[in-house]
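Practice problem 4.
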């Protein structure tokens, strides 16, 4: 990850990420929209913008990952059209206002069957409870499962369905809709006894787009920081 700089790309090892202060029992590769060094946003030093880092030992990975990112990005853009229509807006409202140049990030996560020796992993999740910060996440998971989602009645399993993608609503979609759509608390615990893979694509607003409520959807939700995993309310967020 250090080689990716502000683009926030590259590999991180098991335990290299924390959720609520606890190391995650996973490792992974961070990818995204591949931009050259002379791209205006890269030259301006915008975070999350830059080049991917591809492992030379697996040359076929680039073709597979770029094809997946392209397809999942098209699917996410189409889903955002349905969100627009459901909110009484024109189908292209999100594209025109927020995602003409979306922030697209992609992760390849590996959840090992057990953690490396020498560390106590008994209190660690594959990834602890959290919500995604952007608009929409589309996730492919392998057959081993382990994803859990928090609903009104508590935690439920989100088992893998062949040929289906999991769709998580992110914090910024909750922010923009004044709470009409709620971001999805979720977590992962790999109890299969086998290595698990998951492939989340984050379809997020343009990095420079102001996060202001949609027409007719000013804040109607109460501040919910006390109920959230991070103690913060998305409705207090302002800026880009």
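Answer key:
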């Amino acid at each position: 990850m250090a080689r990716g700089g502000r683009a926030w790309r590259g590999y991180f090892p098991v335990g290299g990420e924390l959720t609520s202060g606890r190391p995650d029992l996973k490792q992974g590769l961070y990818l995204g929209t591949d931009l050259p060094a002379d791209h205006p946003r890269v030259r301006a030093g915008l975070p999350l913008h830059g080049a991917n880092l591809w492992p030379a030992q697996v040359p076929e990975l680039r073709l597979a990952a770029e094809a997946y990112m392209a397809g999942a990005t098209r699917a996410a853009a189409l889903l955002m059209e349905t969100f627009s229509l459901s909110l009484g807006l024109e189908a292209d409202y999100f594209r025109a206002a927020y995602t003409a140049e979306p922030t697209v990030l992609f992760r390849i996560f590996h959840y090992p069957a057990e953690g490396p020796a020498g560390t106590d992993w008994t209190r660690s999740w594959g990834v602890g409870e959290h919500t995604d910060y952007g608009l929409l996440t589309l996730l492919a998971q392998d057959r081993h499962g382990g994803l859990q989602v928090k609903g009104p009645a508590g935690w439920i399993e989100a088992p893998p369905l062949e040929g289906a993608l999991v769709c998580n609503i992110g914090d910024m979609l909750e922010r923009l809709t004044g709470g009409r759509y709620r971001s999805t608390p979720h977590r992962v615990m790999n109890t299969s006894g086998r290595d698990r893979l998951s492939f989340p694509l984050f379809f997020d607003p343009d990095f420079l787009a102001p996060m202001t409520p949609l027409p007719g959807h000013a804040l109607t939700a109460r501040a919910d920081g006390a109920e959230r995993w991070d103690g913060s309310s998305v409705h207090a967020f302002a800026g880009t």
